[in-house]
Amino acid sequence: MADAALKAACTELQRQFHALESSTSNEMQQLSEIGAQLSELKLMLTDHDLLYPHDAHNQEALVLAREVFEIGVLWSIRVHDIDSFDRFWNQLKPFYLDLRDKLPPSPNHEPIIGLSLMRDIATNEISAFHIALEMLPVDFVRDSKYIQHPVLLERWLMEGSYSNVWRERQNVPRKEYQYFVDMLIETIRHEIASCEEKAYDTLPLNDVATLLFFDSLPEVLTFAKERGWQVNPTTQTVEFANKGKDSVNEEKIPMRATIASSLQYARELESIV
Fold this sequence. Notes:
Blueprint: H1 4-22, H2 27-47, H3 59-78, H4 82-97, H5 109-122, H6 126-134, H7 138-143, H8 145-159, H9 162-168, H10 177-199, E1 202-204, H11 205-211, H12 217-227, E2 230-232, E3 237-239, H13 249-272
Helix pairs in contact: 1-2, 1-3, 2-3, 3-4, 5-6, 5-8, 5-10, 8-9, 10-13
């Protein structure tokens, strides 16, 4: 049997996290309380030699430790702490991989595996994404909505179908996925912005907003400031600090063609909607 104090602490952590998921107020206070609970529980797990699981532990204690690390992973995303996410995920992996056939299934298993794949995509670690994906059973990848979400996003990224990625932000399988989708969108914006800077000296402000998937002018202005662009309020244009003027024409033509095609596609979508 698991230590009574450890079991009671885990039960309280679960209660607090479930309350957070159903709450609509005081989220920051609840997150802070959960963070304090996680710190205490990690110390208790250390005292019980449960940070690194092995067969000498009884099943109940292992399940409790797994639940702590699962909540730690989800909590880390809620507080936007990637380093914490990585630490909890690395501590959780042995429970998912080494003890997969020795512990009862966890309802958090599929969502968290999907989140780990989302983390790889959002930080442009595509090789790590494919390695992790190849380790998963084929039917698991095919049948899980949590796994199919990052698989689809990665496919669209490779195809350059950024508009599909943008639309999918409203179709996440779980709240925590939104964080990584937003991170991915920001990466895409900077990729597109780099192409704009090399292909053009100036573009209409509305076209820039459309290309970068912004819904409001203040968002465009903030992004422009970050990139060092000049916005002309009179002509409603963005002037780029074009460092690609001396580039060969062969490099500039495809960029112009790609951006022009994207703009035309975006305008057609807007007219349909």
